[in-house]
Amino acid sequence: MIYPENAVDKLGFTEIKALIKTYCLSEMGRQMVDKIQPMHQFDQINKFMRQTHEFKEILVNDAPLPIEHLYAIRNLAEKARVEGAFLTEEEFFHVLLSLKTVYAVIRYFNERAGQYPNLEALFEHLPIEKSVVAAIERVIDIKGKIKSNASPALAEIIIGIAKAEQEARKRIDQVFKSAQGSGWTADGNLTVRDGRLCIPLLSENKRKVKGFIHDESATGQTVFIEPEEVFHLNNKVRDLEFDKRREVIRILIALTDTLRPNIPLLLAYHSLLSKLDFVRAKALFALELEAEMPQLTKEAALELRNARHPLLLLNFKKEKQTVVPLNVKIDEQQRVIVVSGPNAGGKSVAMKTIGLLQLMAQSGLLIPADESSTIGIFRQFFADIGDDQSIESDLSTYSAHLSKMKYFAEHANGKTLVFIDEFGTGTDPQFGGPIAEAVLEVLNRKKIRGVITTHYSNLKNFANATEGLENASMLFDNAAMRPLYILETGRPGSSYAFEIAQKIGLPTDVLQAAKQKISAQQKKVDALLVDLEREKKNIYDAKRILEQRAGNLDKLQQENESLQHYLDENKKTILKQAKLEAQEIIKNANKLVENTIAEIKQHQADKEKTKELRQNLHHVLKEHHVPEAKVKAAAKVATDQEIKIGDWVKITESGNIAQVLEVAKDNLILAMGDLRSVVKRKRVEKLADKQVPKEVKRTNRSIGSEELSGFYPELDVRGMRTEDAIQAIEKHFDKAVMMGFPSLKIIHGKGDGILRKMIRDYLRKYTQVNRMEDEHPDRGGDGITYVYLN
Q: Might you give the EC number(s) for this enzyme (predicted)?
């Protein structure tokens, strides 16, 4: 309940609805926006808000929703409901486009099943009736016109019209050329008059051509005659046009009869299109506001963080300015916020921001505030904002205020959110202040929630001493004499009346006279408030500096950690590169040693030549800091590491000899007879071919890369005995593990489920198995098991 009714206008909610309407594509969407109002059911608010949030996600992160054609098909469905009535070509075309839009939307969400659950609920259980589309497409073309072959009779009529028109044109051309040759025609070509093709003749020659005169020129010098030779042909065309019209109506009546049984479905489609347009408009408006979905609670409470007034935000956007965010909390302990402070300091804007955002949230709209904000649910909204004096009701401004206070006091409760601007004004402050305090005391006893703005000191004192009420003030920079538009709870604020008057330029003598007229106690209170405000401003500035320094410290710490991480990563890279370079040096040194030995042999160990070669070798090794003793050992290690497919290796731990089937980074796939195994490269030692016993070569049956490349991770064991199936699965499983496949598909059939159970029990003993799942019900269900590997 909202009281008075114009409270939605005073808080700006009517303007919000008008802005949302501008984003609608259809009239039916705009009609739904007109019906927006605050709700009280938690589930309903949550559903509407989540639908808007999901549509916003689509607009930002997904492909566009195919909403191209939105027509109000409800009226067309109601028209088609009447027996004997029929839809026109254009109306059927609108139905066709709307149905195609509906089906495109349903397909869109089916492709994203589960991703947008609240939007999917809009068309849950809504069928796709393609027969209706097919029936319309048989009759209506892509331009929205009746197809020439919509019926055999229509096709025949259209052909007859074409022939008759062609014959009439041919005959009239002959008459026109003959009249031109005789010099009877006026300037110009054939023209149409009364829907008939006519010849322009000079008035004095109108008796020389037999026919019907349809018109004459403004001067009377030219007449337009339909020749007698084509008169009957044009009549035939006219008759055929009437036949065509009757046949088209017959076709449209028949098509409407086909559509009539699906009227309820068309109404459901209309509802879906209306809701989609409605939700889309709300989502687009949320994007414009940079709005988020707050946390919802069933309690009569709210907490806004970094909230901004929507209308102020949009105006400031145009002017490229920013809105000072609002932070406020209203709950069981802090039920009513009494806001004081200077004029034009933002008290009313802060109050209206709270009221407007609460109305928006309870109407299912996203709000321009942090998503960590909390919004509760109120059943009543009472507002006294602005001047509501009434000449008709003989009410003054203050009388209008009192009438509202009376209603508030009688009907408010713990679920009521109350907004009162400039509480107590409109009459003598000596009496207005106490009356306002008494009303506030009554409202507080009823445990209402709300925001009240005031300049009265007695209300500030009452709020300070009363449980459930909390003073708040709008911060003011008394050095620069300007408001900061920041709401600070905990302390009342000064009105800064004298300071603002001084800034405006009120004469000094006037200010001095005014100060002498107020009481000493009031001077002390006001001076105390000013001092408190100054102290609060200093604390606030110090707090901002500390927060900024803390932020800088956090940033430096993050940069330090990032730099340390970078150095650690670089260290690994440098060491790795150094090792590679060392290996390359050793490899080159090994080659140099071999070449030196070869040259010594070549020169038959000549002493001088040998000495020269040894000195050269010693110089090169010293240059690279490589000990000669390590050259051969390093060369051997480098040689051992060069393992390729087909090589023989010995597993260092067990001493078993195996042949390399595949090399995959640091892993080797080895074959030992029929057994296949995956071993780390560092756990094997390369063997020369002559080191491998012949019996090992004979018994080792190499699979080869060709067989592995033809492997497919799918196995069909239907019809096999359990033992045979397990044996086949074991071989297939080993190959899948060796080749690093992420999953294995086993087709075992349904039957009594015994084979399925035995297979799953067998596979559970392998640590390489992560989980097992059934196939999708549409593609085999529990007759197929997917085995997912680690």
A: 3.1.-.-, 3.6.4.-
